[in-house]
Amino acid sequence: MEAVKQDDWQTVCTRDDLVLNSGVCALVGGEQVAIFYLPDTDRQVFALGNRDPIGKANVMSRGIVGDLQGQVVVASPLYKQHFNLETGACLEEEGVFLPVYDIQLDGDAVNVKVAG
Amino acid sequence: MSTRKILVVGNGMVGHHFVESLVGLKTADDITVIGEEPRPAYDRVHLSEVFSGREPSDLALATRETYENWGVTAHFGDPVVRIERARREVVTKGGRRFSYDKLVLATGSFPFVPPVKGADNKRCLVYRTIDDLGQIKATAKDSTRGVVVGGGLLGLECGNALRNLGLETHVVEFAPGLMGVQLDEGGSNMLRRKIEALGVRVHTSKNTQQIVEGESSALSMEFSDDTALDTDMIVFSAGIRPRDQLARESELAVGERGGIVIDYKCKTSDSDIFAIGECALFGGRIYGLVAPGYRMAEVVANQLAGEQEASFQGADMSTKLKLLGVDVGSIGDAHGRTEGSISYVFSDERAEVYKRIVTSGDGKLLLGAVLVGDCEDYDTLLQYFLNEIELPAEPESLIVPAAGDKPLLGAAALPMTATVCSCHNVTKGCIIEALDSGCCSLGEVKSETKASTGCGGCAAMLKNVVEDELSARGVVVDKSICEHFPYTRQELFHLAKVGEVKTFQDMIDGHGKGRGCDICKPAIASIMASLWNDHVLELPHVGLQDTNDTFLANMQKDGTYSIVPRIAGGEITPEKLIVLGEVAKEYGLYTKITGGQRIDLFGARQNQLPEIWRKLVDAGFETGHAYGKALRTVKSCVGSTWCRYGVQDSVGMAIFIENRYKGLRSPHKLKSAVSGCTRECAEAQSKDFGVIATENGWNLYLCGNGGMKPRHADLFATDLDDETLIKYIDRFLMFYVRTADRLQRTSVWMDNLEGGLDYLREVIIEDSLGICAELEAQMAAVVGTYQCEWTTTINDPEKLKRFRQFVNSDEEDSGVVFVQERGQIRPAQPEEKIRLVASSK
Ligand code: SRM
Ligand SMILES: Cc1cc2nc3c(=O)[nH]c(=O)nc-3n(C[C@H](O)[C@H](O)[C@H](O)COP(=O)(O)OP(=O)(O)OC[C@H]3O[C@@H](n4cnc5c(N)ncnc54)[C@H](O)[C@@H]3O)c2cc1C
Ligand code: SF4
Ligand code: FES
Which CATH architecture has domain B5-110+242-304? Predict the structure, then answer.
């Protein structure tokens, strides 16, 4: 595996800016990234595209998170489709995906990898 | 061969059922129906519900279109006056002639009015048709007291109607007891006690001599024992007489005391003429119930379709009723007249319950039963009776409220031939067949078999049979709210309340599994709010809310929000109106008057919400909860303050109600309205709870709904004073909050409430569950801890953090693009967006 290049990552906010078991939105390299904070999972943080491909508005960070049949998901606040937080896949509509961003917690810093 | 002409005279319940059955058998006959009443057949059995708010049109069994679609010719409002048997023709009052090959008489019966002098007064009425109902209502308007003559089943039903119309009600009976046909003396006495306790005066052994003009009231009835009774109106309900005139005049055989004589094929003395329903006399007997009439109709239809064996064998006359809210049941030989029979009687005068069973001499078979005040055992007893099931060794155990070990006749124990629904002749076998052919729920079985769509008396039994059979097939009737909690909302509410659970985490740790989802999280957040009323944005609750609750505003299609400040009762000062205009102008918001008498400002971005609300709060506005499953609006009409017809201050009451219940979180949204008089300009009858002013106070209507499936609210209580009105609403709302399913409006809740409106009255007015004090206390707690969610939010920096568009930037969402239309903004369409974004680059 390729070593993570330090300058690919951008610190977007601190843990304090996140909302427990819910989402916020960050602007990363001109793109809207929805960041979800589930501290009782292994990864704790998840990052997906903020645009709802079905409702066609930038709202995913405002959805409710939870789990369905073992998958950690967020529900679109517009029409309630669920998206897997790890893979971005839509549970209701095959072939529909949200972009997935690399994200990590470094102490209290929340880092997101900037595309290419 | 030309098509056979079938002519049906009379379009009542039985006449209609005949046509429906024959059409269903696809015989290719030419069918013509002639009805005297101006409208197609309707449900006479439920006529009284019109007094408690049901529309006459809801009772229709058929419309003109129904018949058209069936290819049946139908004429209404023109009765047949003559049968010319030799020519096989009938003639109507309007002079029209119709020929027939087979004639079916379904002319029903008429109410018997005893030949008493003065009974032709225009304030003396009868009760059988929708038109009669209109007259009763009209006459009741300027009456304070009403008398029903006749203490039988129909008379008592009519008594209830008068009581619902707000009259002081009296029942006058010739015999020594009430419902003498169906009840024995003990049952009849208990019924009387219960009815009198409800404020209805009962006078038995009274023979009316004449009716004269009264002094203090419109009429006065004089009895043979020299007593008299003043009243403003009289409704005769002293039995029915078959309408056999046509048959009589065309020399068909009729009974000595009336009724067209039929054989077991339902044929009259002319083999081309049938008679069915209440006009027919079979085995020396008139069957005054709808189920036997339906059987006759089916027998004739089947014969005409070529099935020679079809025959009428007489019918069971057992009945279960709720008269004036009192449960009454009568089965078979209620009086124990069968030779050698034995009776067991149970009577509890304190609880006002009377039960009697009549068995064969050897105690093995049930011959009859009487139940007053408690009909719980009715279904079981009826099955023993109808199916001749051998009784347990100690038959009395069936009616004695023993310590819980009553031998229950479960659905599984019923034979396949057991009749579950006698109105539509549905046996257990039919139900199983329906399930075999793919029905998987109670609703589907109902529409497939029609069971429980007649008098409704079999609803509980049907439900048992269906659920029992489904679970025998391994179908789990799963009522869990979602995969995280194996409970219904009602059960979760109970668990949270009893365990004093205050957070979602504790709830899922204690009673569920996993992390929850967008179904259970908002549902539990709502339960927490109803119970403990914390701010919805407190940390443990914030992630549970739907976006609308999170941002205290309604999300629109483009991700912006709308703002709906509370405008209680729709009343607003010019100053406040100006503030709304100024704020809308400053932020460029689209402005619209809503259907709920308030003003909606659209197109606010998430990050603008707090600033906008600060301005609104400063000007004295509060949140309108348009985003929450909570009280929305209480609409009002202008009422007595300005309107020339108003009889109470509807605006004042609406504002009071709105302020009292604002902030109450509930299973679904709640809407209300208050009208200042019966003209009902506020449309209160379409609301979850509606209030209409009367001369004496307020009428309360419950469980109405507009929206997808409109439902008229039911009249719940009349002429309430302010205090009682609020007390009932408190209890009603909290009872609903406690027991409804997730996202179940009050209308659907009511439609699923076992026992319906009567049960609700028992719980709320009579406190039958003994919980009213608790419901009121709980409401008082919610009212007392009200806070405007927006006022609290704008004063709490921690809560405001959530409203940032981006955690790391002050930029705005570039996906939100507006264009102008009719002088205001609207979200751009996708094509417009592409164009606008391209041109701005
Ligand atoms: C704004 C308004 C339309 C308008 O411009 O007039 C409106 C707008 C919405 N209605 Fe409504 N309803 C509005 C009056 C009504 C009315 C009329 C009334 O209240 O007098 C009804 C029928 C009456 C009733 O509810 O019984 C009504 C029946 C519905 C329904 C169907 C409810 C049902 O039981 O069938 C929904 C869907 C739902 O709640 O699940 C709904 C849902 C909605 C939602 C919340 C849909 C949504 O999720 O986006 C809309 C959001 C409003 C917003 O963004 O502010 N709206 N809606 C009205 C707000 C009134 C207010 O001041 O609060
Ligand atoms: C208030 C009330 C409550 C009741 N409750 C119950 C109950 O709980 N359970 C129960 O089983 N039964 C109940 N019944 C009785 C039930 O309604 C009747 O058994 C049933 O309606 C009989 O149907 P039918 O078609 O024989 O008569 P109807 O329904 O009376 O129909 C006869 C029709 O024929 C028409 N007609 C008569 N003569 C002519 C003519 N010459 N030409 C054309 N048309 C003519 C009449 O106008 C009428 O529309 C109740 C009745 C009433 C009034
Ligand atoms: S409901 Fe009656 S009182 Fe109210 S505005 Fe209409 S007419 Fe006037
Ligand atoms: S018995 Fe009347 S509806 Fe079933």
Answer: 3-Layer(bba) Sandwich (3.50)
- What is the tens place of the pLDDT at every residue in B102-111? 999 999 999 9
- Cα B311 to Cα B254, B308, B314, B801, distances in angstroms: 20, 8, 9, 79
Q: Is B244 helix (H, G, I), strand (E, B) or coil?
A: coil
Give the rounded percent of residues in chain B with a pLDDT score beyond 70.
Answer: 98
Establish whether residue B560 lines the binding site of ligand 1, counting it when its CB lies within 6 angstroms of any ligand atom: no
Which residues does ligand 3 sit against, CB inside 6 Å?
A: B 637-639, 643, 645-646, 650, 675-677, 679-681
The CATH code belonging to domain A4-107 is 2.102.10.10
Q: How far is the CA of B594 from the centre of ligand 1 (A)?
A: 9
Q: In three state form, how does the secondary structure of B717-780 look?
A: EEEECHHHHHHHHHHHHHHHHHHCCCCCCHHHHHHHCCCHHHHHHHHHCCCCCCCHHHHHHHHH
pLDDT band at A2; cut points 50, 70, 90:
very low
Residues from chain B contacting residue A112 (CB–CB below 8 Å): none
Residue type, B101: D
Q: How far apart are CA A54 and CA A98, in angstroms?
A: 10
CATH code for the structural domain at B316-409: 3.30.390.30
Q: Are A22 and B813 a contacting pair at CB < 8 A?
A: no
User: What's the CA gap between B396 and B406, in Å, rounded?
Assistant: 10
Predicted local confidence at residue B326, as pLDDT: 84
Domain range B413-476, CATH architecture = Orthogonal Bundle (1.10)
Residue A33 has what pLDDT?
96
Nearest CA in chain B to A40: B515
Do strands A57-58 and A64-68 pair parallel, antiparallel, or not at all (unpaired)? unpaired
Rounded to the nearest integer, the mean pLDDT of chain B is 90
Please determine whether the domains at B124-238 and B413-476 fall in the same fold group of CATH: no
Atom 60 of ligand 1, residue of closest alpha carbon: B596
pTM of structure: 0.56
Residue B685 pLDDT class (50, 70, 90 cuts):
very high
The 3-state secondary structure of B309-367 reads CCCCCCCCCCEEEEECCEEEEEEECCCCCCCCCEEEEEEECCCCEEEEEEECCCCCCEE
**Which pLDDT value is given to residue B477?**
64
Architecture of the structural domain at B124-238: 3-Layer(bba) Sandwich (3.50)
What pLDDT sits at residue A1? Answer: 39
| B409 confidence band (pLDDT: 50, 70, 90) | low
Percent of chain B at pLDDT > 90 equals 62
Q: Which amino acid is at B579?
A: V
